[in-house]
Amino acid sequence: MNDEKQPLLTTGPGVPIDNVEVQAVELVNDPSVPKTEKDKSEYHPAAERCLEHPTSNFDTLIHLLKGNIGTGILAMPDAFKNSGLIIGVFGTLFMGMICTHCMHILVQCSHQLCIRNQRPALSFSEVVEDAIATGPIPLRPYAKTMKAIINIFLVITQLGFCCVYFLFVATNLQDSMHFFHINLNVHTYLALLLPPILALAMLKNLKYLTPVSLIASIMTAWGLVVTFYYILQDLPPTSSVKAFASWHQLPLYFGTAIYAFEGIGVILPLENNMKTPDDFGGWTGVLNTGMVIVAALYTAIGFFGYLKYGEHVLGSITLNLPNDLLAQSVRAVMAASIFLSYGLQFYVPMNIVWPYIKSKLTSENALKHGEALTRFTLISLTFSAAALIPNLSGIISLVGAFSSSALALIFPPFIEIITFWPDQLGKYNWKLWKDIAIIVFGITGFAFGTYASLENILQHT
Fold it and tell me: TM spans, by residue (predicted)?
């Protein structure tokens, strides 16, 4: 018997799955038995995965919630300001539905390609590569190129998240210090944050970040509870805010909303590491359950936050809270939570970039110091971007519109078309038309959202 091991990917955009160790999936093949079509029809990827510590349905649900709830939820009131109250409610629910559907598409295509190629598990970029490599013949030479493009978007997205984290902590810290009559500009706080973030991001093993992540999760939950306590008090009538903002502002809403929902990168690692992966999909599965909770939270905080503060709402709802001790503690706790999560967010781009750079290094001295230098360079890049563009709402919208929309809305339907081309796209090719509609929606949001976000950033620079 020959043993082949296929490693599982740790994570993609969104918060890495810190409590799930990077494991190996063991696939056992017997070379004496030819791979026939019957073998493929009987192949079950989950049965071929050899997981030392598989996650339960509840564990997976918690990881899914953690992977989708971050700084984006605190920016939802600002998103509603750019859409209007009514459009924000229905738009957020619609966006959640589309994003959840695209997550289902990715899981289904991964399962189909695992069976087709007899592999126990695939990462996001591997799904794209395998789909094109076994898809229409004219596209097959571009399989590795598309895999590289997916990895580039993953890196851009995650570094964008890190940039937002830098700025979020700095702005909340700045606001908290006003309570003690300490008035420094945001660039000073960014500079003060650089050394501790460098130290945190130098941790190479996710095991060391697990307790840090647990503390951050508790802080985030507590901060959200207190935030709701403030925004639900003395609410004005709904007529005090706009039902629809303007067509010009709508792309900014799209960018912020898709940024908040962009957790598609954690979907395959979660499903790959489940004890019962069949429970992940379905109408009442883990994915739908988690995303309903996420969509409800986003809609609630966006609706009540915008209704409470109206046109004065800021890039993070925590910045609108009153200047009392409890509110200041929320800012401090949320800033600390996001600060502690930086290392986990940074793990993903580093996990993609470093193997590529490592393959180009030849000398022993370069290999010895190369990883630390790569970490320093990437962290400095996020610091520089935050310092050059100290506009929290603008950066969130730009990251969402440019990279998150591509990963969450454009690539999944494209993968489904390629995977099931040409005769498995449903009656009258309904899957094809549905996927084209989602791609057009994603590209439209990508183009107008990116343009509007860049315009907004330039106006406030």
Answer: 85-107, 148-168, 180-201, 208-232, 252-270, 282-309, 329-352, 372-389, 436-454
Q: Is 322 helix (H, G, I), strand (E, B) or coil?
A: coil
Distance CA 249, CA 83 (A): 7
Residue 276 host element (H or E): none
CA distance 389 to 349: 21
| Span 310-317, average pLDDT | 88
* Structure confidence at residue 124 (pLDDT): 86
- What confidence score (pLDDT) does residue 89 get? 94
Q: Does 333 have pLDDT greater than 80?
A: yes
> For the chain, what is the mean pLDDT?
82
What phi and psi values does residue 362 have, to the nearest 5 degrees?
-115, -40
**Token pair for residue 65?**
């919630």
Sequence letter at residue 97 = M
SS3 428: helix
Instruction: Let me know how long the chain is.
Output: 461
Asked if 345 and 16 count as a contact pair (C-beta separation under 8 A), the reply is yes
Which run of H or E residues covers position 363? none
Query: What is the C-alpha to C-alpha distance for residues 66 and 89, in angstroms, rounded to an integer?
Result: 22
Where residue 264 sits, what CATH number does that domain have?
1.20.1740.10
Kindly list the distances between the CA atom of residue 351 and the CA atoms of 17, 128, 154, 269, 358, in Å, as whole numbers in the listed order.
13, 18, 11, 14, 11
pLDDT, residue 85, reads: 93
Rounded to 10°, the helix 250-261/430-459 angle is: 110
177 domain-assigned: yes
DSSP assignment of 35-73: --HHHHHH--GGGG---SSPBPHHHHHHHHHHHH-SHHH
> What's the whole-model pTM score?
0.81
| CA distances to 83, 231, 309 from 304, in Å | 14, 6, 9
CA 441 to chain centre: 19
Q: What is the mean pLDDT of residues 255-280?
A: 82
Provide the number of structural domains found in the chain.
1
296 domain residue, yes or no? yes
Strand partners of residue 406: none
Contact 207, 222 (CB under 8 A): no
Provide the token pair at 130.
């395998």
**CA-based nearest residue to 299, from 453, 79, 102:** 79
- Domain containing residue 261: 53-459
**pLDDT per position as a tens digit, 76-110:** 999 999 999 999 999 999 999 999 999 999 999 98
- On whether residue 20 sits in a domain, the answer given is no
Residue 23 pLDDT > 60 = no
Q: Which DSSP category does 120 fall into?
A: S
What one-character DSSP code corresponds to residue 139? G
